[in-house]
Amino acid sequence: MGTGKRGLIATAVAVVCAVTVLAAPGTAFANPTPSPSPSAGSAFAPAKDLEAVRKKLDKLYRAAARATDEYNAADEKADKQSTQVVELAKKIVKGQEKLRKLKARAGAAAAAQYRGGGLPPEAHLVLSDDPQDFLDGAGRVREGHHATKGLLGELARTQEDLEQYAKDASAQLKKLEAGRKAKAAAQKKIEKQIAQAEKVESALQKEEQERLAELEKEAANKAQTAWLDSGILDEINGKASEQGKKAVKYATAQIGKPYRWGAEGPRAYDCSGLTSQAWKSAGRGIPRTSQEQWKQLRHIDVQDMRPGDLVIYFGDASHVAMYIGDGAIVHAPRPGRTITIAGAGSMPILGVVRPDAGTDTN
Chain centroid to CA 184: how far? Predict the structure, then answer.
């Protein structure tokens, strides 16, 4: 959040209090090659123990991914709420200035009556001896009544508007504070899960860490092979839309950059940060989190997907990647990894969503 926005929010807090008193917030993946097994007689932990470690790490990083979605959602809400607070603060400032001017006009009218001897216009009219003056005065009195009534009505409406702006700003500030707490809680969850995962990995010897990486690849290759063996790739032949091509070009240009939770580039990304920024570069704004992308974007059958579509993974929609064709995706995997190309079936697919509604192109 910028310094200017923070200043306006601080002003809003003060103004809300004041107004409340005054008025009473592609590479093909068709044939993955299994990684070689370690030679017999290795001195480090047996494969079954490392497989247990792999599963534990996967569980920890999945939990971190869910918390990252919570963090991103809270961050997005907080940004929207702070913008609303700023807009309300501007309305309050304008309303106060309008109220000041209206009160000045009312004061001028009262002063004019005082200069007239303290008598209302009707009294002066009754005391007039000249019939023409009486008739002219009657018209002015009627105009004065309308003007006074209009002024008082405008004063009342402005006062009511200020009261409503103050209530709205107070409510948004409460939501903003709640959002900040949710964001902080999600950050603690992320840091806890990642710290536990790093502790598990750091306890391994170098050879064990290398073998663990091989086990991760083997698990991904096994899942991808099973997915391809279903014959699904024979059915997937959709052509990318023009926007889809731009999104794929952006996403693949980020390959090699590190994963960082909450990041939206340009130096690092989390999974949904990559997909949302890729589509933003293609001229299509989409939700920030993988769960909201799953909820809000149009669902497509897997066999109908085309490059640029987003593949949502796991039952809780905690991971997202972009399909780039030939059975492959580009994604930001997890902390400690870089943006890379992988098999679209290397993780459990929840479904596919399409950000753009354009027709297929050649």
Answer: 16
Q: Which parts of the chain fold into alpha helices (H)?
A: 3-22, 47-115, 121-126, 131-202, 206-229, 232-235, 242-253, 271-281, 290-296
pLDDT digits (tens, 9 = 90+) for 37-79: 444 334 445 555 877 888 888 888 888 888 888 888 888 888 7
Instruction: Supply φ then ψ for residue 28, to 5 degrees.
Output: -75, 150
The one catalytic residue in 17, 124, 146, 319 is: 319
With the CA atoms of 7, 8, 9 and 10 taken in that order, what torsion angle do they form, in degrees rounded to the nearest 10? 50
Q: Choose the catalytic residue: 124, 145, 146, 331.
A: 331
C-alpha–C-alpha distance, residues 108 and 28, integer Å: 81
pTM score, whole prediction: 0.62
- Under a CB-based contact definition with an 8 Å cutoff, are residues 256 and 341 in contact? no
* pLDDT over 60 (residue 360): no
Place of tokens 């870089």: 338
pLDDT band at 145 (very low <50, low <70, confident <90, very high): low
Is 181 buried (19+), middle (13-18) or exposed (0-12) by CB count in 10 A?
exposed
CB 269 within 8 A of CB 260: yes
Q: Sign (positive/negative) of CA torsion 39, 40, 41, 47? A: positive
Query: How many Å apart are CA 91 and CA 350, to the nearest integer?
Result: 45
Closest CA to 341 of 357, 321, 358, 320: 321
pLDDT in tens, 273-290: 999 999 999 999 999 999
Cβ proximity of 47 and 152 under 8 Å: no
Q: Is 331 a catalytic residue?
A: yes
Under 8 Å between Cβ of 358 and 231: no
Q: Which is the catalytic residue, given 124, 146, 271, 299?
A: 271
Query: What is d(CA 215, CA 246) in angstroms, rounded to the nearest whole number?
Result: 34
